[in-house]
Design a protein that fits this description.
five-stranded mixed beta sheet, Ferric Hydroxamate Uptake Protein, Chain A, domain 1, Immunoglobulin-like, 23 helices, alpha+beta
Length: 1504
């Protein structure tokens, strides 16, 4: 009891402390929810979404944050794209396009505001999306296990339901189910559905069960299709974590209380159990059983002096015993009971005591009761109506505030927004208009105007996806406030589920509360770390002539808004910011020094919507007062005149200076060229306004006569501009022309081309006022013209340089992500000659507003699919109540035609495409069938004439063979007496065999001999390039790295880094290539945004952003971020954190502490390599003295090792440290090793070997040679040539090899100017001349071939690169591959609807630890990967993650132990009959992709 009370007390203390210290956050905490147009997509499709941003206390629209961020995470967890949206009225809409070549897998949308970042990212909203090409079933099925967790001898129960595409249950219908264990079928049975289309399957597991690998597959023949659904059986064997939790947190001897429990397996999945409690005398004193999802509760009365233990009796053979919760001899026990609408608290106590009961929801206290508790049991009734819908937290405390017990209770679950969807029909025709009505009310039926979003989709794929993620009710009211993952959260809000209510109460008993989940560094602190984004921010600092910060007053003038400006008084650091601005507007910044003279410089740091460092630091520290000034409307005689004129109100201004002192400012007119107090200038200024100008033929005429004392004189030369003279102004030089200022830009003379209609106003300044305001250039007066259109850049000239300065800040209109508009066609008729509209989402409307009566009506059209459509509406009422609803209807034609096409075919595949015809009419149909195919596809014989009786269907199998690569649409045309229907569906066929790539590179004359191993006819291609420019060569290097699957921090970093080299080279060489610069900048900016997302909670970086951080990888990131600073704004605080993290890892012994987990859990990167790499990176970042010990140690160890890679790193580090003695020693050792052809190295920071290791070592040596005061260009040239000759299809070895090679090449080219005329280059293939840019595959032959290169001047040779690619039926295995792969199918012949087990084994052949590894598995076209099973692979950690590229499944592992074999079993679903052969499978180490082991593709025959 003591421990329990202490835990509760600490929790409450922390919570109340945080609430006291962070009152604004507790009041304005935010939540986000996203409603998407679907959850299952295919490459090339768009996901549309609506984001709701609400105040967490009441779900009303959020009022603080104006910007929200949505990150799209790819299957590896990498941020594929970061989207930024402006929030208005608590919502925004967004979209994301999955590119055609996007890898399949599980993507996530992660949404948050900067304000929400004060809490851990568990408070962010995350939604999973699946990207995969699948064949959706033609019946709508569900299969689930109501009980979670079975063991040996247990009876398994499964719930099965089925509907047809007309949304009708398939009742009283037979189906078949099969049970497989360990990949072997053990049972086959028949089932019959009831009238509602449901059936409950029962079967018993064997007593000798020894595997958790179980599969249930149900098949049904219906409407000429054979469809199937399968799920893994939740088997548990001796791995259960059982948590026992007393209700309220307290258990007292002699008092009966409830003990809740929750059981999960090793993958954190719920397990339903039965258990017993035994005392220390061997007596069973209690029994218990799960109610739902491994949760339950049972009453128990502990006896003083007794000890208890808990056993699980089901599933069987669970040997572990579990500890019983501790209990005390004194205290109170609480138990909540719901009886109808009443909430009753039962309190049991063993002594009388005065207590307080407090009930709160989301930090707001709704009830407090003082209780005089007596010994024994008593009941307290609580008024539920006081509380909003959601989780209430009840705390029972002593009068001194010490909490005794606490309980979460979910209240008023039905007091939410009630949404009803209705349509004008229940059944439609394809392409027919649907009229849909939404009705929103409260639980009493009172209309509630609401803001909703609506998605309408084809129910086939929606049902297949079987999405069980949070919806708007479960997230906003439950999951967002509880610790841990809630399994199937939407279950607890099903209105037709009798177990939902009691199960929801068990969730309250077994999950911790986390309404506030602050970052660790904010616990117990008085400040926040992040502020709400106010949108567009302009910030910077004010400096003097010596670029030192200076205190100043800064004004921001909006060039479009009338009578409005902002003022900020800076501190001594000179930093300023203005937030909440309009990104489409243009602004002037005006800065005045505070109490000192001298030049004032305005430096812009940010002009955009990113989180602003200056604003956050200053507001959090409360260092600045910030206020808005509203202008005073001018008097009638002083009309508002120029768009560039804004009014700033301030008091007690001096008449001597435009801005007076620091304390106040009178009404001031701010113009482009300067500023003047209105009262002072009135007598010296004449104004001509727009109405007086527009009627005149030109400006000169308008001014002539309108301004007293202004003379307009024509010059002797009619071509010259007219002369303007202001009376009283004269010049000894004869130049009496006034100064013209047009929109702030000074001109020497009037512009004849100025259109009077473009002018807003003209002011003429004369007497001494012009000189006082505008300086010596205005000695002859000033004519100031303000136009109506003032876009573009404005130059400013200032006479008061010793007092103030101004700066024009253009608006930035592309700050927010672009939202695509959903396309919803409108059909004039339901009749069509072509059925090609098979969109999964047929309608999406992100903003549906119901009126005061709670009604909204929408219209849209069905697609061509004969199917059930499902509408899903979600939203929030004006009073903050969330709600949702779903509705279905169907569409069918008199004649329906449908076909299943495999998503991918391989050349040689022979499919039997099932074309299904259905007659929904009342008379027989005689139909003719014809076919139109893309090139390279051929059709066999099929029935071209069929007869369909009424209410019948018929399947016609159409033989289809892929005779070559193809891409296009297959068209099925069916003719009958009632008309013609044409169905158009996409189809793709890819090349067969093993892909082979040969690459030859260099910059010297050479002859390359190579062998072609029987290429598949037509597959051989050549690409010969000559790189006349360095940037072209660098771009080619980047492209090489993008040809294989990628996505981690290192890969993203390495494909970004070369762009920095490109820009450095172009800048330092003086070359100009705008197209390349633009492309490089785009890659750098995108790469930077991705890279910073991999920062871990420890402030370092890791391959996928998970703790623990990887020290060597963090060092690599530091290198790149340091170099990036020259081209983009890099977060300085992030750089400081990264340096601090690495310095904090020093072990005090001259090395660095390396994390034992993460990527290096197999210690694949030894300390001997990681330490010098980190030292090298830190010295590159400018750190020296702080790591002197680590540097000295690394130098000594590198020299002692004679390892070329380590010595290369430390030679560069020595150069950075300016230690010439160490540098010379290391360079001499490297030279000796190089000259003896013994340039050996053990490994690199990414565990590179062989070719990659050689390239990395040579590149470091070349860069070190280039650091010498007198570089040995001869040696450097030879080293660079070796690097160039090492290029392969994958780049220069690994990604690290490529990055170092490109770095070395750039440094080399800085010293060696490429000659304009490099001499002629001759190429020959098999003694026949060839030219760059031409494909010469026809000159090559199977077997031996040669490729020759001859330079007329080898000293100035430009690099070349030849790439050969082809397919062969002979596997090109590498002898240097460390991994071996095998793939096999349990059955090579199967039937449609069955599952086929594919076994994948990858073995580490070596007695060494292996780093990150990849297997690419070819899948036969007629078989389908099951999304639910792929998800389970990741959940069970069988793989790190997976991706799907075309018809390859790509599996990733973080590493292999010595001689380890990893096995993955896939149950592939047979969808389309035919004979298929998969593409060849292969495996390789992530950093040596050139060393692959191949396995021939598996073959299967699928019978109809």
């Amino acid at each position: 009891m003591k421990n329990i009370i202490c835990c509760i007390g600490m929790f409450l203390l922390t919570t109340f402390t945080c609430m006291a210290q962070l009152p604004d956050y507790t009041k304005y905490k935010e939540k986000i929810y996203i409603h998407t147009s679907h959850v299952f997509f295919q490459p090339g499709q768009d996901v549309f979404f609506k984001l709701y941003l609400v105040n967490a206390q009441d779900q009303k629209p959020g009022v603080l944050s104006k910007v929200v961020f949505v990150e799209v995470l790819d299957p590896s967890g990498n941020v594929a794209k970061k989207l930024t949206y402006e929030v208005t009225d608590g919502f925004t809409q967004g979209s994301y396009t999955f590119e055609d070549n996007a890898p399949g897998g599980i993507y996530k949308l992660r949404a948050y505001t900067t304000w929400m970042r004060n809490e851990k990212d568990s408070s962010f909203f995350v939604k999973e999306l699946t990207l995969q090409k699948v064949i959706a079933p033609r019946v709508l099925m569900k299969l689930d296990f109501p009980k979670k967790g079975y063991g040996p001898g247990d009876e398994v129960i499964a719930d099965y339901s089925v509907r047809n595409l007309s949304d009708q249950p398939i009742g009283n219908y037979q189906a078949e189910y099969k049970v497989s264990l360990g990949g072997k079928m053990v049972r086959t049975e028949q089932l019959t559905t009831n009238a509602e289309g449901k059936a409950q399957l029962k079967f018993r597991l064997p007593d000798t069960l020894n595997t958790t690998d179980g599969l249930l597959n149900v098949t049904i023949d219906y409407d000429a299709y054979k469809e199937a659904i399968s799920r893994s059986i939740p088997i548990v064997l001796n791995k259960i974590d059982l948590q026992l939790l007393p209700e309220g947190g307290s258990l007292v001897a002699g008092l009966t209380g409830n003990i809740a429990f929750r059981a999960i397996n090793e993958h954190s999945k719920p397990v339903d159990i039965k258990g017993e409690v035994w005392d220390d005398a061997g007596n069973k004193v209690a029994a218990f059983e799960s109610y739902y999802a491994g949760m339950g509760k049972f009453p128990f009365t502990p006896a003083a002096g007794k000890n208890y233990k808990v056993k699980i009796i089901s599933p069987l053979h669970i040997a572990q015993q579990y500890a019983f919760p501790a209990f005390t001899t004194d205290g109170v026990v609480m138990n909540f009971v719901k009886t109808g609408e009443k909430l009753l608290l039962h309190i049991a106590a063993n002594s009388a005591e005065e207590l307080t009961l407090a009930g709160q929801t989301k930090g707001v206290v709704y009830t407090v009761k003082d209780l005089s508790v007596k010994k024994g049991r008593q009941i307290v009734e609580i008024d539920q109506t006081l509380f909003p819908a959601g989780i209430a937290r009840f705390t029972l405390s002593r009068k001194n505030g010490l909490p005794l017990a606490e309980r979460l209770v979910f209240l008023n679950k039905h007091n939410t927004l009630q949404v009803k969807i209705s349509t004008d029909k229940s059944q439609y025709l394809p392409r027919e208009k649907v009229v849909l009505t939404l009705k929103t009310t409260d639980s009493n039926g009172t209309p509630l105007p609401s803001n909703l979003s609506l998605a309408v989709m084809d129910d086939k794929l929606w049902s297949y996806a079987d999405d069980k993620q949070d919806h708007i009710l479960s997230w906003l009211l439950m999951s967002s406030e509880l610790s841990g993952k809630i399994e199937e959260p939407l279950f607890y809000f099903k209105q037709d589920e009798p177990k939902a209510g009691p199960a929801l109460d068990l969730v309250m008993l077994t999950h911790g509360y986390r309404y506030f989940n602050y970052l660790p560094e904010l616990q117990g602190t008085p400040t926040l770390k992040y502020l709400p984004d106010e949108g567009y921010v302009i910030s910077g600092n004010i400096t003097n002539q010596q670029q030192q910060p200076m205190k100043a007053t800064v004004f921001l003038v909006n060039m479009a808004a009338k009578n409005k400006a902002l003022q900020m008084n800076t501190t001594e650091d000179g930093e300023f910011f203005f937030a909440g601005l309009d990104p489409r507007a243009s602004y002037y910044l005006i800065a005045k020094a505070a109490g000192r003279k001298g030049n004032v410089n305005i430096n812009i740091e940010q002009n955009g919507i990113d989180n602003n460092r200056i604003r956050a630091r200053k507001l959090l520290a409360e260092e600045v007062s910030f206020k808005e000034y509203a202008g005073i409307r001018p008097a009638a005689q002083q009309q508002e005149y120029a768009r560039a004129t804004k009014i700033i109100q301030r008091e007690n201004d001096s008449l001597m200076h435009p801005f007076g002192n620091n304390k106040a400012l009178d009404e001031v007119v701010v113009v482009g060229y300067g500023a003047q107090k209105k009262e002072v200038r009135t007598g010296s200024v004449v104004m001509v306004v727009a109405n007086d100008i527009q009627l005149q033929p030109n400006v000169q005429t308008a001014l002539q006569g309108a301004v007293a004392g202004l003379q307009v004189m024509r010059q002797a030369n009619p071509a010259d501009n007219r002369q303007f003279v202001i009376r009283g102004n004269a010049s000894l030089t004869g130049n009496n022309q006034p100064l013209f200022i047009i929109d702030g830009v000074a001109f020497e003379g009037m512009l004849e081309s100025l259109n009077p209609n473009d002018i807003e106003s003209i002011e003429v300044f004369k007497d001494g006022m012009a000189l006082a305001l505008f300086g010596s250039r205005a000695a002859n007066g000033v004519i100031l013209i303000s136009t109506k259109k003032t876009g573009g850049r404005i130059r400013l000239g200032l006479n008061k340089a010793n007092y103030y300065n101004t700066k024009y800040v253009p608006g930035v209109s592309n700050q927010y992500s672009v939202v695509r508009m959903f396309y919803a066609p409108q059909y004039a008729s339901t009749e069509t000659t072509m059925r090609d509209d098979f969109r999964e989402t047929i309608y999406w409307n992100p903003v549906v507003q119901t009126d005061k009566d709670g009604n909204a009506t929408l219209e849209f059209y069905n697609s061509d699919a004969a199917t059930t459509f499902r509408a899903v509406a979600e939203g929030i009422a004006w009073n903050g109540k969330p709600g949702r609803a779903e509705a279905t209807w169907s569409a069918k034609n008199a004649l329906q035609i449908d076909a299943k096409i495999p998503p991918y075919l391989t050349v040689g595949d022979r499919a039997l495409v099932p074309l299904v015809l259905k007659n929904n009419g009342t008379s027989s149909l005689e139909l003719g069938i014809s076919l139109e195919l893309p090139a390279q596809l051929s059709a066999g014989q099929y029935d071209k004439k069929v007869v369909l009786v009424p209410a019948s269907s018929r399947q016609v199998l159409i033989p289809l063979e892929a005779i070559g690569p193809a891409h296009g649409n297959i068209k099925f045309t069916v003719n009958g007496a009632t008309g013609t229907e044409t169905l158009s569906l996409p189809i793709t066929a890819t090349e067969k065999g093993f892909p082979v790539f040969n690459t030859f590179s260099g910059d010297k004359s050479a002859t390359h001999s190579f062998y072609l191993g029987a290429p598949v006819t037509g597959s051989l291609k050549t690409e010969l390039q000559v790189f006349a420019t360095l940037e072209g060569q660098l771009l080619d290097g980047i492209a090489s790295m993008l040809k294989e699957p990628y996505g981690c921090f290192e890969q993203t970093s390495s494909t970004t880094y070369p762009n920095i080299f490109i820009l450095k080279y172009l800048r330092e060489s003086g070359n100009s290539n705008p197209e390349v610069v633009a492309k490089a900048m785009k890659y750098i900016e995108a790469g930077y945004k991705k890279l910073i997302s991999f920062e871990t909670s420890e402030r370092g970086f890791e391959w996928f952003g998970h703790a623990p951080a990887h020290e060597a990888l963090t060092a690599y990131g530091l290198l790149e971020f340091t170099d990036m600073q020259a081209f983009i704004n890099v977060d300085k605080e992030m750089l400081a954190r990264t340096k601090a993290f690495l310095l904090g890892r020093r072990d005090g012994k001259g090395g660095f502490k390396l994390a034992s987990g993460g990527y290096d859990r197999f210690a694949s990167v030894p300390n001997a390599v990681a330490n010098p790499y980190i030292v090298y990176a830190l010295t590159q970042a400018g750190i020296g003295k702080e790591i002197q010990q680590e540097y000295d140690t690394a130098v000594q160890r590198a020299l002692a090792s004679a390892d070329a890679y380590q010595m290369g790193l430390m030679a560069l580090a020595a150069s950075n440290m300016k230690n010439s003695n160490d540098y010379q020693h290391l360079m001499q050792a490297l030279k000796t090793s190089y000259e003896k052809n013994n340039f050996a190295a053990t490994t690199t920071v990414v565990n590179s070997r062989d070719a990659s290791l050689r390239v990395e070592s040579l590149a470091l040596y070349a860069m070190a040679l280039l650091r010498d005061q007198h570089p040995d260009m001869t040696t450097i040239t030879f080293v660079i040539s070796k690097i160039l000759s090492g290029k392969t299809y994958y780049g220069y070895g690994s990604t690290q090899g490529t990055i170092l090679a490109l770095n070395a090449i750039v440094e080399y080219m800085k010293l060696k100017e490429r000659a304009a005329a490099a001499g002629a280059i001759d190429f020959e293939a098999n003694a026949r001349k060839v030219a760059a840019g031409n494909d010469f595959a026809s000159l090559l032959k199977p077997g031996a071939n040669t490729f020759s290169v001859h330079y007329s001047n080898d000293k100035t040779g430009v690099p070349y690169n030849l790439q050969l690619s082809y397919y062969t039926m002979q596997p090109p295995n590498s002898d240097k591959a460390d991994l071996r792969i095998s793939t096999s199918l349990a059955d090579t012949r199967t039937r449609t609807g069955e599952t086929v087990r594919m076994k994948i084994s990858v073995k580490n052949e070596k007695d060494i630890l292996q780093p990150m590894s990849i297997a690419k598995i070819g899948i036969p076209a007629g078989l389908s990967l099951q999304p639910w099973q792929l998800r389970e692979l990741k959940e069970k950690e069988a793989v790190a993650y997976y991706e799907i590229f075309d018809n390859y499944l790509v599996l990733y592992w973080m590493g292999f132990s010595r001689h380890e074999t990893k096995t993955v079993n896939l149950d592939l679903k047979a969808d389309v009959p035919g004979t298929y052969k998969a593409k060849a499978s292969n495996c390789y180490l992530y950093y040596t992709p050139e060393y692959k082991n191949w396995n021939e593709g598996t073959e299967v025959t699928i019978l109809p």
